[in-house]
Design goal:
15 strands; binds glucose-6-phosphate
Length: 548
C-alpha cells in the first residue's frame, strides 16, 4: 500500500515564507547580528516562573520570530493549548485527554473530564501520598519485624522510572539523608543485584510503579523483589508491610499480591512520561518530603499558567518549541544537546530524551498520514563541564549543526571555594565561543603558524539557548519540567502529530514475548525468524548452555 503523504504543513503560507527567509538567513553570522544590534542580548530574552531564557544567541531576527509565530497561529497552537487544558481527548489515537496539567492544579481549580471534576481526586491521592510519605520519614511505618524502613526501592521502567530517578537525583540536596533511595528498571539481573546489595530486607520498602501493571520488566523485577524479601522474612504476610503499588490497574495489583489498601492510583489521562507529578512520584515525595514535592508541583503550575496565558512572543515553551522547529526543519539540524551546569541534573538529559523522542518521534500525522518533513530531533547531553572534555569538540568544530540548551544556576547548593564561579564561567564561555568563534585571522594574529591556523580557528555561529535560574529548588525543577513538556507539545502541534501515544514501542515487545517462549522451549518450537535472528538465538543458547 502506498502511504498517502501529508503536505498540509509544508503547504502553509508561513512555511513557504520561512523557507524563503531561511535562504536569506543561512549565511548570516551571529557576529553580524550582535554587531547590528548591540542590545540584542537584552532584547531576545523572556522570563517566567523563575526561569530567565536568553535566546539571543540563535540564528534569528525579529522577522524569523514573526514568521515562526505566524506558523504557530496557522497551526492553531492557541486552540490546541486550550484543548489540552480543557481536557479534550487530544491523545487521539488512544482517544483520551493528556491532562498532566491537572496533576499540579491547585485545590481551588476545577478541571472537568467527562462530567467529573478531577482536581479533588488528584488532591485526595496527593494527601494519601503525603500521609504515607510522612509515616515512612518519621519511622511510624515500620517493616514486618518492627524495624524502621531505611531503604526505598522504586521498581518501574520508562515513564515509571525516568521521572522518579531524575527528580530524586535533582532534589537529592533536599532529601532525607538517613534513607537510601534506589531504582530498578532494567530486566537485567545486574540492575536488581546492585540495587539490593548490602541492604536488609527487613528495612526495605519496594514501590512498584506501573501504570498498566502488565509491563514484563517491572513484573519480573517485582517478583524477584518478593522472593528476595521472603527468602529472609519467610512469611508472605510481610509483603503488605514491604510493598506498595502505584498503578491504574487495581485488578493486576491485587493479583500480584499487593494489598490494594497499599495502592496509590492515578488515571488513564496521565501518560507514562508525564506521570512524575502523580503517585508515580511517590519515591521523590518520600525523599524530599510532601512540602517540597508540592513546591515542585507549584513550579510546574506556574509554568502551565504562563504557557496558557502569555502572549506567544514572550512565552518560553512556545519560543523554545518554535526554535527547535526552525533548526530541525529549515537548518536540517538532527539533534539538540541539553547541557546542565549542575551536577544534580545529571539525569535530566535522559529524562528529556524520553519526553521528547517518545512524544514526537512519529512519522505520521494525527490523521495517520505520512509526513513529508522531519519530526523530533534527537536529544542528548551530559552535565557541564564534563562534556567540554569529551564531545564539545564536535559541537565547536564538527560538520553538523547542534543547537544547545545550556542550563545554569546563580547560587550553588554546595558552596566550595571558587568552584561555582569556575563552573559558571565555563557555561558563559562556551555559549560565547559557540556563537562568535575565532577567525583564522584572529588565530594568525596571535602568532599561530599558517599551517595550524585552520585547525585552531572556530567558525562560531553555533546556536544556543541559555536558561539561567537563581537556584535549583523543587519549584524551579517543576518549572523546568513543565517548560520542556510544553515545548514538546508546541513542536508536536506544529508537526501535526499525536505527542501522547507511543505505538513505536509495541512491535519489539510483541516479538520479545515470542522469542522468550522459543528460548524457553528450544526443542519444541523451531525458530521461525529471519536467518540472522535465528542464528543469533542458536548461538546464544549454545554458549549459554556451555557455561551452564
Ligand atoms: C511513557 C510510556 C512508557 C511507560 C513504560 C512503563 O510514556 O508509556 O515509557 O511509562 O512502558 O509502563 P507501565 O507504567 O505501564 O509499566
Amino acid at each position: 500500500m502506498t502511504p498517502s503523504i501529508s503536505n498540509s504543513l509544508t503547504k502553509r503560507p508561513a512555511w513557504h515564507a520561512l523557507e524563503d527567509h531561511y535562504q536569506s538567513m543561512k549565511d548570516v553570522h551571529l557576529r553580524q547580528l550582535f554587531a547590528e544590534d548591540p542590545q540584542r542580548g537584552e532584547r531576545f530574552v523572556a522570563e517566567a516562573a523563575g526561569i530567565y531564557l536568553d535566546y539571543s544567541k540563535n540564528r534569528i531576527t525579529r522577522e524569523t520570530l514573526r514568521l515562526l509565530l505566524r506558523l504557530a497561529d496557522e497551526c492553531q497552537l492557541r486552540e490546541h493549548i486550550t484543548a489540552m487544558f480543557k481536557g479534550e481527548p487530544i491523545n487521539s489515537t488512544e482517544q483520551r485527554p493528556a491532562l498532566h496539567i491537572a496533576l499540579r492544579a491547585p485545590r481551588s481549580e476545577k478541571i472537568v473530564v467527562e462530567g467529573i471534576d478531577v482536581v479533588p481526586e488528584v488532591h485526595a491521592v496527593l494527601d494519601r501520598m503525603a500521609d504515607f510519605a510522612s509515616k515512612l520519614r518519621d519511622g511510624q511505618w515500620r517493616g514486618y519485624t518492627g524495624q524502621r524502613i531505611r531503604n526505598i526501592v522504586n521498581i518501574g521502567i520508562g515513564g515509571s522510572d525516568l521521572g522518579p530517578v531524575m527528580a530524586y537525583e535533582a532534589l537529592r540536596h533536599y532529601s532525607l539523608r538517613d534513607m537510601n533511595f534506589r531504582f530498578i528498571s532494567n530486566v537485567d539481573g545486574t540492575d536488581f543485584a546492585e540495587a539490593t546489595r548490602a541492604i536488609a530486607p527487613e528495612e526495605t520498602l519496594f514501590i512498584v510503579c506501573s501504570k498498566t501493571f502488565t509491563t514484563t520488566e517491572t513484573l519480573e523485577n517485582a517478583h524477584a523483589a518478593r522472593q528476595w524479601l521472603l527468602a529472609k522474612l519467610k512469611d508472605s504476610l510481610a509483603v503488605s508491610r514491604h510493598f506498595v503499588a502505584v498503578s491504574t490497574n487495581t485488578e493486576e495489583v491485587s493479583k500480584f499480591g499487593i494489598d490494594t489498601a497499599n495502592m496509590f492510583g492515578f488515571w488513564d489521562w496521565v501518560g507514562g512520561r508525564y506521570s512524575l507529578d502523580s503517585a508515580i512520584g511517590l519515591s521523590t515525595m518520600v525523599a524530599v518530603g510532601p512540602d517540597n514535592f508540592r513546591a515542585m508541583l507549584e513550579g510546574c503550575h506556574s509554568m502551565d499558567q504562563h504557557f496558557l496565558t502569555s502572549p506567544f512572543d514572550r512565552n518560553l515553551p512556545v519560543l523554545m518549541g518554535l526554535l527547535a522547529v526552525w533548526y530541525n526543519n529549515f537548518f536540517d539540524a538532527a539533534s539538540i544537546a541539553v547541557l546542565p551546569y549542575e551536577q544534580y541534573l545529571k539525569r535530566f538529559p535522559a529524562y528529556l530524551q524520553q519526553l521528547t523522542m517518545e512524544s514526537n518521534g512519529k512519522h505520521v500525522t494525527v490523521g495517520g498520514v505520512h509526513v513529508d518533513y522531519q519530526t523530533s530531533p534527537i536529544i542528548w547531553g551530559e552535565p557541564g563541564t564534563n562534556g567540554q572534555h569529551s564531545f564539545y569538540q564536535l559541537i565547536h568544530q564538527g560538520t553538523r549543526l547542534i543547537p544547545c540548551d545550556f542550563i545554569g544556576f546563580c547560587q550553588t547548593l554546595n558552596p566550595l571555594g571558587n568552584h561555582h564561579d569556575v563552573l559558571m564561567a565555563n557555561l558563559f564561555a562556551q555559549t560565547e565561543a559557540l556563537a562568535f568563534g575565532k577567525t583564522e585571522d584572529e588565530v594568525k594574529a596571535e602568532g599561530t603558524p599558517d599551517w595550524l591556523c585552520a585547525h585552531r580557528s572556530f567558525e562560531g555561529n553555533r546556536p544556543t539557548n541559555t536558561l539561567l535560574l537563581e537556584r535549583l529548588t523543587p519549584y524551579s525543577l517543576g518549572a523546568m519540567i513543565a517548560l520542556y513538556e510544553h515545548s514538546v507539545f508546541t513542536q508536536g502541534t506544529i508537526w501535526e502529530i499525536d505527542s501522547f501515544d507511543q505505538w513505536g514501542v509495541e512491535l519489539g515487545k510483541a516479538l520479545a514475548r515470542r522469542i522468550i517462549t522459543e528460548l524457553d522451549n528450544p526443542d519444541e518450537t523451531p525458530f521461525r525468524h529471519d536467518s540472522s535472528t535465528s542464528a543469533l538465538m542458536r548461538r546464544y543458547l549454545r554458549l549459554k548452555n556451555a557455561a551452564a
